[in-house]
User: What shape does this take?
Amino acid sequence: MNKQTLFIPKIFLVTFIFLFFSSQSAADIRSLQQLEATEDIEMASQQITKAYFYLHQEIRIEQSERDLENGLDSIEKNINILANTKDKKQQRMVKFMSFTLDEIKETAAQPYTNERGALMLDYSETLLEGAESLAKKYIHKKDKKEKMLITTKKMTFLLERATKYYIAFRDGFSDHNNVKQLEKAIKEFEAHLKIIRAYKHPAEPQRAVSKLIEYWPIAKDFYLGVEKNDLPLIVSVTTNHLEKSLAVLENYHHNLAEGK
Assistant: This one.
């Protein structure tokens, strides 16, 4: 067998290996996109209801209008990402989430009533439950880079969740279970902060971690004072302040997870 005969199969082998790993890489990125879409819906489900109550109480109106609009846009965008699947079960869940989004838009556009406030709380939990059910399909528990990315996203979600229950409490939704959900969100945020703190970040994201660590003891008391204090403006500003640092960390870990 001459050298030319040997060379041809090698070309096919190299080409096959390249195409295999390219397809694997594309599949991994698509899986990450689907996972991030579920996480973003989880966060936005809390954000829109939080903004709804803040708007009704006429607190930080411009910020709350942006939060509501951004939350609705995020849910719609990420529903479209999740709709790109051949999985029948996922398709059914996405259709249900799309229907829920339509209900949210209709409810939010109408004047506030206690009944509509209760509906918004229910809708936020419905979207959350749907997104969580889909996320299970895409989580890779052994992927450390993915874990860190999801940790930062969960922290933003937990802040939005805690703030939602805080401002809803002020509107009369003072059921003990709502208070327990707020307290649970703060407890989980603190557990996630320990994970972030233990990770060795380079300079810029480490500054964001340091800000979180420094400010968190003060912020925690604001959230947990829901039954004793009435500080909706401070809680809103606190949430935004913490989320700015989390956005830096999320961007850093997103790039790592995508292999950039």
